[in-house]
Amino acid sequence: MKSDLECLVCLFKQALNTVKIATPDTVLQREVINRVTEIVKTANLDLSPAEISTVVYRIVSEVTGIADPYKIIKQKTNQDALQLIPVLQRLIAEAKDPLDAALHIAAAGNVIDIGIGHPFDLENDIILSMTAPFSINDIESFRLELKPGVQLLYIGDNCGEIVFDRVLVEELLKHGITITFVVKSGPIINDATMEDAETVGMTDIVPVIETGSDDIGVNFNRVSKKFCQLFDTADIVLAKGHGNFETLIGIPKNIYFLLKAKCDVVAKELGVQKDYSVFKHQSGRC
């Protein structure tokens, strides 16, 4: 997916949100904005929004000396989400269509996107997600693919959200498929890492691997051989969130994208209204 001029404006918003979390020093804050300004001047809009945004977070870390500005916030969102597990599991167990319910709950978790300053209310968003239909819903083709022995690669997104992913993984395992969950190899925004996977119990139920990089989404120039091998051999890839959608759309692979369209650019690419969720299938014939 290519970037848009609106993405350049968003770079400043992401930079300011992040550097304010990292430090109260206005001199350092201004330095970050100055450096992002230079990046914007030559930004290649043929790149995905995820690719050009990744640079912003590296600038913040370089200027402030803080590798993980969101560390405390990530820990809190994990703990807040963990408190909801009994509620999430009950909603799925009582649903007429448990798979559909689990997908909606996992999509509700995608509201947790701190980098762009998107407000969220976990409990309220869960309730809304259970009644709001997906703007694009390819659940039936997905359901037909869930056969014993199928290998699914689940590429996760954010902290907190990984708890919602966990309850979806638990539901998917009932279909007899094999699942490997993917996290980042280093901190970037509030994306989930191995530490988060261990904290929320994901490592207790399925194998968890790292991408091999700390990029937003999937940067095939920097991912590990292990990730590439599993991506290539997986029967199904389930990709969560904006970053994964932006970097994987158009890749000739059997991928299901599960996300909420939180900006106009991604909404336009999906062909839906902003703030709507989708479960979109991309066949391997791109």
Q: What can you see in these coordinates?
A:
The chain contains 13 helices and seven strands. With 286 residues, the protein is α/β, with parallel strands linked by helices. It folds into two domains: 5-64, no CATH class; 71-282, Uncharacterised protein PF01937, DUF89, domain 3 (Rossmann fold). It has helices at residues 5-22, 26-42, 49-64, 71-82, 85-94, 98-109, 122-131, 139-145, 161-173, 194-199, 225-233, 241-248, 264-270; strands spanning 136-137, 151-155, 178-183, 208-210, 236-240, 255-260, 277-282. The protein is globular, with a radius of gyration of 18 Å. 45% of the residues are buried. Helix 2 packs antiparallel against helix 3 (49-64), helix 5 (85-94) packs antiparallel against helix 6 (98-109) and helix 6 crosses helix 7 (122-131). The protein has a seven-stranded mixed beta sheet with strand order 1-7-6-5-2-3-4, with helices on both faces. Residues 114-118 have low confidence and may be disordered. Strand 5, helix 12 (241-248) and strand 6 form a beta-alpha-beta unit.
Can you name the CATH architecture of the largest domain?
A: 3-Layer(aba) Sandwich
Distance between the termini: 13 Å
Strand order of the largest sheet: 1-7-6-5-2-3-4
Specify the overall morphology. Answer: globular
Q: In terms of structural class, how would the helical and strand content be classed?
A: alpha/beta
The CATH superfamily title of the largest domain = Uncharacterised protein PF01937, DUF89, domain 3
Biggest pleated sheet:
7 strands, mixed
Number of domains: 2
What radius of gyration results from the CA coordinates? 18 Å
Stated plainly, the CATH topology of the largest domain is called Rossmann fold
Helix content: 40-55%
Low-confidence stretches: 114-118
Order of helices and strands: HHHHHHHEHEHEHEHEHEHE
Report the β-strand fraction as a percent range.
Answer: 5-15%
